[in-house]
Each structure stands twice: as structure tokens, then as C-alpha cells.
């Protein structure tokens, strides 16, 4: 099981299937992104 975590606020964004336990860090998430209010998955 893998986890995607926001680098700015350390909140969990999503989970994904993986053979190992993995943590990936994303630069942006919807909760701490003040500039854009659209819900886009990139």
C-alpha cells in the first residue's frame, strides 16, 4: 500500500496499490493551494 502526502501540510491526499509500503510526496494539494480553487488532478 502506498500513500501520497502533501509536502506543504503533511495531509494524506490519496492511497494506491503497491508491493511495498511507500510514501510519495506531492507539492500541492487542494486544502493548502490558495491560488487555484478548481479541482484538478495532475
Short summary of the structure?
With 42 residues, this protein is mostly beta strands. 0% of the residues lie in helices and 36% in strands. It has a three-stranded mixed sheet with strand order 2-1-3, with no helix packed on it.
Terminal residue distance:
20 Å
Main sheet makeup: 3 strands, mixed
* Uncertain stretches of 5 or more adjacent residues: 35-40
Radius of gyration: 11 Å
Strand content: 35-45%
What is the mean pLDDT? Answer: 77
How many H/I helices? 0
| Structural class label | mainly beta
One letter per element, helices H and strands E, the order comes to EEE
Organism: Sporosarcina globispora
Protein name: Phosphoesterase
Structure description:
The chain contains no helices and three strands. It has strands at 2-6, 12-16, 22-26. It has a three-stranded mixed sheet, with no helix packed on it. The protein is elongated. The relative contact order is 0.34.
List the helices and strands and how they pair.
Layout: E1 2-6, E2 12-16, E3 22-26
Parallel strand pairs: 1-3
Antiparallel strand pairs: 1-2
Question: Which keywords apply here?
Answer:
3-stranded mixed β-sheet; mainly beta; single chain; 36% strand; elongated
